[in-house]
Input
Amino acid sequence: MATTNQQLAEGQVPLDSRAPVSGTAAENPYSDQYVDTNGAQSMTETAAPNDSYDLEDNGRSKEGQYNSDELLSRIRSANSVTISPELFEKLYLSPQRRVKGHLRQTFANPTPLALLGHILCITPLSCDLMGWRGAGQYGAAGTGAYTFLGGMILIISGILEFFLGNTFSFVVFSGFGGFWLSFAATLIPSFNAVGAYSPTGDSLVLGIVTPGFQASFAFYLCFWAVVVLIMMVCSLRTNIAFFLLFVALEAGFISLTVGYFYLAAGKTSKGNNAVIAAGALLFACGMFGFYIFLVLMLVAVDFPFLLPVGDLSKYMRGYQQKHGPIKP
Output
């Protein structure tokens, strides 16, 4: 039934005047709403079982005219809109999972903040490793950035992802927040992580070139490469851009591991070449991070156009999508 001008003037919109949602709606095990199986967004009725929305005076302007913006706001408040799995993984870099509550509709998306902290640490570090314009000293100039941007911001973002129910993003952001804090602590003299290897027991400059430190640090990077490999496999459920970020990061960790083992063995030329190669790979990782950050910010401000990320969730269907909920 079409909405009449008289009904609009009285501030009432019949329920059956709203356009129906096209397609067949099926229950989505990864959301507490209903999703159109044709890929379109759908709306779930949560309003009281009456025959109209009574907008009282809020649906009209001071002159008594119909206010479409306020009416739309009222209708939205009575309905919940479910985003598609493709848009969800673009926003949160995590496969969509079923969670309770409406925190995602209440609070901001912390994912861009986490990416900001990561790319502002890994990109300058990659330039240091490659020695661009005389940079070097293992990125010691960025110790403050590693602590506050890479460490604090990533951990805070990870905690926020935890409350939103995004387990993958929570683990990735919190884990790398810990990595950047540990890397910063290695470069801070008061921790004496490097100086302990020096002949004097407190020299950062002498300790960082000792075989003992270089081999020990190589083992740390080696097992981080194992962790990143697991994350890279899991990212196949998100999108191509995020997956390529992990591919470059994994290759960078492997190259750093090989480089430090070469340096520990006294093969300085091969070790330095491997470290430079690692810098190039980490720079590529940073560029993928900048692209995803741009994508998320365009979505955040509802920009007139969006950039693709190469959705993989429709090709890598989850176990529960195929077989239903996991039984205990």
User: Anything to note?
Assistant: Residues 268-300 form the longest helix (33 residues). Confidence is low (pLDDT under 50) at residues 1-66, 71-84. Residues 56 and 317 are 47 Å apart (CA to CA).
